[in-house]
Amino acid sequence: MTSDTMTFTLRPLDPPEDAGLLHRWVTHPKAAFWMMQDAKPEDVERAYLEIAADEHHHALLGLRDGEPVFLMEKYDPAHRELVGLYEPRPGDVGMHFLVAPTDTPVHGFTRAVITAVMAHLFEDPATERVVVEPDVRNKAVHALNEAVGFVPEREIRKPEKRALLSFCTRERFLKAVSA
Prior knowledge:
The structure is a single chain. This protein is α+β, with helices and mostly antiparallel strands. It is built from five helices and nine strands, in the order βββααβββαβαββα. The strands form two sheets. Strands 3-4-5-6-7-9-8 form a seven-stranded mixed sheet, with helices on both faces. It has a two-stranded antiparallel ribbon with strand order 1-2. A hairpin with a 2-residue loop joins strand 1 and strand 2. It is globular and about 35 Å long.
């Protein structure tokens, strides 16, 4: 999958193998909105083993030149995360993504990642709309979401946070990335 000049590949997350790597990512200060700051490596492994066993939730690692650089989760919002918080439509897919922390940031990298994630989700012809629910305080991700075509609908209260429920259709995504 390619976004601008960056090419990424995806592979399924292997919780026992990848837990150490993910632990470093999710406990990094820049991952505060991931809400795993105090997690131990075994907590991360357990959380991702649960996802791996869940037919409605999937975790993938994004690679660039063979190196893991982001985490992507996709889920069925009719069964996970947003049950009872909005009226899901056929073709809705929920998404989370986390870019690996780095000491040498590359300008445009995170936008390339979210673009690649969205392109991957829309490769499935059954996907009509991508749904996200980031923390209302996460202004950086709101800007990224808007850049790829998300439209905020409303704030919702989840058990762990106040979230900004936002949607992106295939048409809005294609229009945003071709502009």
